[in-house]
């Protein structure tokens, strides 16, 4: 959720838009007597500078504006050509509206520029049909956007925010300190450092949300860093108070060779020291903009560590460390694996170049050897589903704009582009409740603005010099007060701006204000109907669907990983695929991002911890990759321990399915579900005649962590009501099969 706008930043932005729009408008209208060029020189900066919301610094915004210029010229050309008939313009509006809204899958900058680019087609596709003015329109738009880019770059430019790499460097430095001295680590401080890496807390321009290799790698590195910090926070007390050599560990620990325990402890400390060193080196590289260290040293340390564990497991029974020490080894190994993922992902994200060979594990780094075009296609087609909130928003926007153009053309509404502008404004809302609230404010603001504009038109009549004097201060006030005081003020002030501009281009009377009110009411009704009929619950219903689908995908990964670890011989069981879960995770993250931007309908709905589902899914994916990676000794797993481990995995998977049913309000779920899996303190351990196996200890640690996370998720969902949170006629009413 965004906070209150920065008054200084808003004023600077309003000043840049006003200067850019006024420069071309006054020069073309009063200097060259070219009203068409003046109109487009005015609306270019207003669209991309005032109505759009391009994030970033002055340099970043200027870059986006310059890249948008060719697209804007194409849209004006297309709109001018398709204005020949109403149906041609409507069909073009449907295609353009969908494509520009769906472009939000490319990241925050594309999403921010989309509404402004929509206005270029809207302005050109309304009557009159005047293909002979195309050159003037393109020249005016070019002038306006170049002026806006220059103002963004030179005139009080917005400062750049700290890049995502800097946040990662800070978090890794904290992780390095915790790994070097676990006893001095603060679990709260580690978790706070992880929360600062959440994309929702990162400035939009710095979020690695694009489909390319660099952004994908930085996103993965950030998620792995968060997991590393959470593991260090969870293990801080356990690592600090783990039993040392000579400590009593029960009857089994008393018979253990203290030398084996000391070697195990020393190996854990050495591996943590390597993790600390790697985190520091990676943090320094990210902070200085250098290439992170190449993967290798930590990998070798992990191999040596795992070799020691296997030697202990296959050695004499009295040489195996106590179970508590083995669990600490497993926790340290998990920390090291998270650090290795950070290391590899940071390497890929440093330059974003395509790798010639796949990087292991390939299913986690599947994007490293893919072409840029393939990655873009993957992102676009991955969201071509009714389960994608980006797709839903694009469809709703396109249908609303198409309907607005059809109504404006069929009924010959004067200044019909205002109808589509109203729909475009309401298209930014995501729930029918938000839409209705926005409609009331829009109508109130426009009514007041129209009354004032009508009075000015009556008072000044055809004295265009009066409107020329009012236009620039009016724009400055509109783009300053609107963001600070709300949409009602923005709409009212913008009505005055539009009236002042059109009164200079062509003779106007008080009827212009009345036409503005009529068009805004028409557009508001269309926008409200679209909000009521097309996904009226926003992302609230969809977040439940996508999270449930994600949890159902996690279950087979848990049981499949357990089957691999418990196989009689390594390699005899096919590893489960993680790609379906990765795809579900992306859809769930998109739904959650929009859900976070919407107000909670009830306190119960707000208590649902959907972010915990995303963290748990990441935990499942990472565990499914690193747990089976090392060669296991060809020692038969004791039947009792194998049976326990399989049952535990099945119970965790069943818990995930039960939570999925709870999330979607499935009435077929059992009324009294099985209790969550809770392993005893010493489980799983093999019988007395066989040593504990590292694979079983690793599996136990993984299942314990997953069980704890799922338990917290289930508790947060127990008091929520999916049907109530979806609202009447929610997304589930479409009857679409669950994809």
Provide the β-strand percentage band.
under 5%
Average pLDDT, all residues = 80
- Distance separating the two termini: 29 Å
- Measured as a percent range, the helix fraction is over 70%
- Figure out the total of helices: 27
Q: Please state the CA-atom Rg, rounded to the nearest Å.
A: 30 Å
Question: What is the H-and-E element order?
Answer: HHHHHHHHHHHHHHHHHHHHHHHHHHH
CA-based shape: elongated
Number of strands: 0
Q: Detail the poorly predicted runs.
A: 243-256, 667-673, 679-691, 721-739
Tags for this model:
739 residues, mainly alpha, 0% strand, disordered C terminus
What would you say this structure looks like, in words?
Helices cover 70% and strands 0% of the residues. It is an all-alpha fold. α12 packs antiparallel against α13 and α21 runs antiparallel to α22. The longest helix has 31 residues. The chain is elongated. 51% of the residues are buried.
């Amino acid at each position: 959720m965004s906070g209150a706008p920065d008054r200084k930043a808003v004023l600077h932005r309003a000043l840049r838009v006003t200067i850019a729009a006024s420069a071309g408008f006054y020069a073309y209208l009063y200097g060259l007597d070219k009203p068409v060029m003046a109109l487009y020189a005015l609306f270019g900066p207003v669209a991309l500078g005032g109505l759009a919301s391009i994030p970033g610094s002055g340099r970043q915004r200027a870059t986006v504006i310059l890249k948008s210029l060719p697209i804007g010229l194409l849209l004006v050309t297309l709109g001018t050509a398709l204005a020949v008939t109403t149906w041609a313009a409507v069909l073009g509006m449907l295609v353009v509206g969908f494509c520009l809204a769906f472009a939000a899958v490319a990241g925050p900058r594309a999403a921010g520029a989309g509404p402004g680019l929509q206005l270029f087609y809207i302005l050109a596709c309304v009557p009159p049909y005047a293909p002979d003015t195309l050159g003037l329109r393109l020249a005016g738009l070019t002038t306006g956007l170049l002026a806006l880019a220059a103002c963004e770059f030179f005139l009080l430019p917005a400062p750049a925010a700290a890049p995502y790499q800097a946040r990662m460097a800070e978090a890794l430095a904290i992780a390095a300190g915790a790994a070097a001295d676990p006893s001095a680590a603060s679990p709260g401080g580690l978790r706070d450092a992880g929360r600062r890496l959440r994309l929702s807390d990162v400035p939009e321009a710095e979020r690695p949300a694009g489909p390319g290799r660099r952004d994908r790698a930085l996103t993965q590195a950030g998620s792995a860093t968060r997991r590393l910090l959470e593991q260090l926070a969870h293990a801080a007390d356990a690592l600090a108070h783990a039993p040392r050599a000579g400590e009593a560990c029960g009857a089994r620990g008393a018979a253990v060779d203290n030398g084996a325990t000391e070697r195990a402890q020393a190996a854990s400390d050495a591996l943590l020291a390597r993790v600390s060193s790697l985190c520091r080196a990676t943090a320094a590289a990210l902070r200085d903009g250098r290439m992170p260290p190449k993967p290798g040293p930590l990998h070798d340390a992990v191999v040596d560590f795992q070799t020691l564990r296997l030697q202990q497991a296959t050695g004499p029974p009295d040489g195996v460390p106590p179970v508590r020490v083995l669990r600490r080894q497993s926790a340290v190994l998990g920390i090291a694996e998270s650090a290795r993922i950070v290391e590899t992902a940071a390497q890929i994200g440093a330059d974003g170049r395509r790798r010639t060979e796949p990087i292991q594990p390939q299913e986690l780094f599947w994007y490293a050897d893919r072409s840029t075009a393939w990655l873009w296609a993957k992102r676009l087609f991955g969201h071509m589903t009714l389960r994608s909130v980006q797709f839903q928003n694009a469809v709703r926007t396109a249908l609303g704009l198409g309907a607005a153009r059809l109504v404006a053309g069929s009924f010959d509404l004067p200044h019909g582009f205002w109808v589509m502008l109203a729909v475009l404004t309401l298209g930014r809302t995501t729930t029918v409740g938000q839409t209705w609230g926005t409609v009331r404010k829009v109508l109130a603001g426009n009514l007041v603005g129209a009354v004032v504009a009508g009075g000015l038109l009556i008072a000044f009549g055809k004295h265009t010099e009066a409107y020329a004097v009012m236009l620039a201060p009016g724009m400055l006030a509109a783009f300053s007060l609107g963001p600070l005081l709300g949409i009602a003020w923005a709409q009212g002030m913008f009505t005055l701006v539009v009236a002042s501009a059109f009164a200079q281009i062509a003779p106007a009377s008080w009827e212009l204000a009345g036409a503005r009110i009529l068009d805004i009411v028409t557009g508001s009704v269309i926008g409200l109907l679209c909000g009521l009929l097309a996904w009226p619950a926003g992302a609230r219903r969809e977040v439940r669907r996508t999270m449930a689908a994600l949890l159902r995908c996690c279950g087979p990964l848990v049981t499949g990983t357990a089957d691999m670890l418990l196989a009689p011989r390594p390699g005899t069981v096919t590893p489960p695929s993680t790609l379906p879960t990765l795809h579900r995770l992306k859809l769930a993250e998109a739904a959650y991002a929009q859900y976070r931007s919407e107000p909670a309908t009830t306190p119960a709905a707000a208590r649902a911890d959907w972010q915990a589902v995303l963290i748990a899914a990441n935990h499942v994916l990472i565990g499914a990759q690193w747990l089976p990676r090392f060669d296991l000794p060809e020692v038969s797993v004791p039947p009792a321990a194998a049976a326990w481990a399989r049952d535990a995995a099945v119970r965790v998977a069943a818990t995930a399915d039960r939570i999925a049913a709870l999330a979607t309000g499935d009435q077929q779920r059992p009324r009294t579900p099985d209790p969550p899996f809770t392993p005893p303190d010493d489980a799983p351990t093999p019988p007395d005649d066989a040593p504990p196996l590292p694979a079983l200890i690793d599996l136990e640690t993984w299942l314990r962590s997953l069980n704890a996370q799922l338990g917290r998720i289930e508790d947060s969902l127990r008091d929520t009501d999916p049907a109530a949170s979806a609202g009447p006629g929610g997304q589930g009413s479409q009857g679409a099969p669950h994809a």
